[in-house]
TrEMBL record:
The lineage of its organism: Bacteria, Bacillati, Actinomycetota, Actinomycetes, Kitasatosporales. It comes from Kitasatospora paracochleata. CDD domains: PT_UbiA. It comes from the Bacteria. The chain crosses the membrane at residues 92-125, 137-156, 162-182, 203-224, 230-249, 256-275. It is a multi-pass membrane protein. It is found in: Membrane. Signal peptide: none annotated. Pfam families: UbiA (PF01040). Keywords: Membrane, Transmembrane, Transmembrane helix. This is 4-hydroxybenzoate polyprenyltransferase. InterPro entries: UbiA_prenyltransferase (IPR000537), UbiA_sf (IPR044878).
Amino acid sequence: MSETVPPGVAVSALVRACHPVPAAAVTVFAGAMAVAAGRGVAGSALVVAAVGAGQLSVGWSNDRIDAVRDRVAGRRDKPLATGAVRPRTVAAAAVTALVLCVPLSLASGLLAGAVHLLGVAAAWAYNGWLKRTVLSWLPYALAFGLLPAFVTLGLPGAPWPYPWVTAAAALLGTGAHFANVLPDLDEDRAAGVLGLPQRLGRTASGLLAVVLTSAATVLLVVGPTGPVRAAGWLALALTIVLTTAALAAPRSRLPFLAAMAAAAVDVLLLVTTTGPA
């Protein structure tokens, strides 16, 4: 980056390099689960701080690790590729966020903190290596699957969440992985990033994204004891419509849009069902 770049421009570039939209979405999601689970104001704030720090570290490390590839590919949407921010600045930010994530996570308890840090470590492993392998889905399944546990293990008595909540969160995370790569799938292949979605192709990955997120919806609706609520029936009906639409047009953008819609339904259901077993 040129020495003449104004500090404000560099700060803006640093913010864009952290993948702010998904980072904020996951952080808000975790905070909402914490509130719904009864962590209280202080406990929910700790969850938000820990998850936010973890997400920042993951986003910055992703762009720093991919800086050379993004520059070669001419990615104008990547601040590191355009020279808007120094690589060492992004690297320092990633490490700082990761260091802060440790005490913030452990503030919820030793077990809760260890669970969250395991999820963050999985995300770093994805950035550094696993995204290029057939196991690219595993960090998503692990990180998302452990998030409800981080929330509930911070409650008195450190209870684990219901198993179906953990399974649904893992399915949601895996589905999100397949959906997330669809827009850049061809570019990833050209750059040699051959995770499982890139190996399976656009059609199969799009359908898998819908199936996985829909399966999460089913678990979240039928998992709780007692009769299915009206909202549950509505979620199931929406899931059927989305899945049918995706299956009917597998080569269109419908699988991606359907997966995103199903994921939104899953997030709402997770927020209302996350709690100790």
